[in-house]
Amino acid sequence: MKNSHYFDDDQVDLKSKYEKPKQPNWLFRRIYILTWIRHYDREKAISDLIAGITLGLTIIPQSIAYAALAGRSSEYGLYTAFIGSIIYVFFGTIPQVSIGPTSLMSLMVLQYCYEKPIEIVIVLAFLAGCVELLMGIFQLGFIVSFIPSAVNKAFTTGTSIIVALCQIKNLLGVKLKGVPTPKAFFENIKVADATVGITCFVILLALRQLSSVKFKEESPATRRLKKLLWYISISRNALVVFTCGMIAYFWIQKSSFEAIPITLSSKVDSGIPTIKLPPFAFIHDNRTYVFSDICRELGSGILVVPIVAVLANVAIAKAFVKDGILDASQEMLTLGICNVAGSFFSAMPTCGAFTRSAVSQASGVRTPMAGIYTGIIVLSALSILTPYFQYIPKSSLSAVLIAAVIFMVDFKPLTELWKTNKKDFISWLGCVIVCLAAGVEMGLLYGIILNMIFVLLRLGKPKLEVNVKKSDNLIYVHIKPMSDIYYTGVELIRTEIKSACVLYRNDFPIVLDCSRFMLFDTTFLEMLNAVAKDLRENNVLLILQFFPDKHKEFLNGNSNIRFANDRTLSELIVKT
């Protein structure tokens, strides 16, 4: 047959023509800027400048809002944005990824550091960075594989709902603590705050649609107009926040702080952050905190925060990676360095943000160098604009947060998973409910544990296909696993073989397909020896198909065992 030599079993030496791409030097892979900076040119620099400025206009209002979500003043969000953007330039592998404050990390900070000193938040950033660094050093990127897509989607949806619900009170000017009754909630709505918040929210949604405006005719003028509308759309957060701040500022200049009817942000310390060691010991409200006290206050957050950050960062990196090859360990190392370095600048825990990464992609970013320009813009805001942040209405920041997260709420899995996979549906629904009822870390833990139970059940009860087949007028029973078999499924195979022998009264030989047997260990070999012994007593032949040669010697003591593949199976049955 023509070209039949392509299917020969002999190994073909193609090294002379086909070689794997050479891996970059270890130093180049770890300090990743060295792999692309040599090819950096003017065209890439212009693209990165535009993307960096665009991202800067996005990250400043988001940082202020995420700091408020975490229960902290605005400057801590900007410290986080500045250091994350700069560090990722040198170690990051994906140009689109934007490291900085996120709704997810702010929610984690709120949960583990609620009404606790800011020093504890800074130490949390340091400890989270250390855990992430260790995960990267020991190449533990595979841990993310234990979190299935359904759980990841549920986690994102649950977190987004929690963020939106947390901000409803600020949006409407409600100042009650805890979860108020519906009556108390509506009685305490401030009309002025609610008007500003709802107006900002509607404007943000309207501006978001500008990027999708289509024109009937394509011309240079319409292309320029479309580009302008796109810039307005992605800068919507900055436009809304700064406009509200300016209105409040001029209002106060004409009257006073007391005269303004809306709730404003708290006063912000001005200036660029100073470099100092994380506060491993400090005094707050006449109480001395040492490192062990801080760890006790943080509890499980020391592990949960870095794992959640890694999950989010790797998921974003996977979405934007070019060639499908992602160095998850390098991303973990980079995230760890960002958090450890950030703790020296009084930053909060940080990770990648999908919305900002999407803005970078749409802005035409070419390399991580865009982070330098973003960092410069954030530093400029810290040194020049911080005195004016106190004029930003809280309700406008809440509108920014809600408008950002509502589009991350995805209920499509409800219908899709119900039709395709009931187990994934249970995982998704359960994870969302647990996130809302018990917290995001418990929801994530629930999803991971439930799916590990599903995996263990599948390993313990693998699917087997049992058929009676005919070859050259001879009949045999063929048992073929439909999934990988580990030692946990050994007893099921033995039971199926016994059932087949009883059903067919030991009249036919048993052919067991071993191609999906994984990790041949003592349990496997003992089972096969025991089955062969049982069949020998009834004069039944056991044929092991695709059995590895290196393990055959352990079964040579059984006279009724034969070994075969597809080519020799029929011949072997006839001969026997």
Compact overview of the structure:
The chain has 576 residues and is an alpha/beta fold. It has 23 helices and nine strands.
Q: Quick one: how many beta strands?
A: 9
Strand content: 5-15%
Q: Please, what is the average pLDDT?
A: 86
Q: How many individual domains?
A: 3
Multimeric state: single chain
Tell me the number of helical segments per DSSP (H or I, 4 or more residues long). 23
Major sheet size, sense and barrel closure = 5 strands, mixed
Into which percent range does the helicity of residues fall?
Answer: 55-70%
Task: Please tell me what the overall shape is.
Answer: elongated
Strand order of the largest sheet: 5-6-7-8-9
Q: How would you classify the helix and strand content by structural class? A: alpha/beta
Rg value? 31 Å
- The rounded distance between the terminal residues' Cα atoms is 31 Å
Low-confidence stretches: 1-9
Which tags fit this structure?
Transcription Regulator spoIIAA, 23 helices, two-stranded antiparallel sheet, 58% helix, 576 residues, 3 domains, alpha/beta, five-stranded mixed β-sheet, disordered N terminus
Can you walk me through this structure?
The chain crosses the membrane at residues 49-70, 76-99, 120-147, 189-207, 228-252, 298-321, 333-355, 370-389, 426-457. It comes from Glossina austeni (Savannah tsetse fly). Keywords: Membrane, Transmembrane, Transmembrane helix. With 576 residues, the chain is an alpha/beta fold. It folds into three domains: 41-406, no CATH class; 411-460, no CATH class; 464-574, STAS domain (Transcription Regulator spoIIAA, 2-Layer Sandwich). 58% of the residues lie in helices and 7% in strands. It is built from 23 helices and nine strands. It has helices spanning 26-30, 33-36, 42-69, 74-91, 103-113, 118-137, 149-172, 182-187, 191-208, 220-234, 236-254, 291-298, 301-320, 328-343, 354-362, 370-385, 394-405, 412-420, 422-438, 440-460, 490-503, 522-537, 566-575; strands at residues 99-100, 282-284, 287-289, 351-352, 464-471, 474-481, 510-513, 542-545, 561-564. The strands form three sheets. It has a five-stranded mixed β-sheet, sandwiched between helices. Strand 5 (464-471) and strand 6 form a beta hairpin.
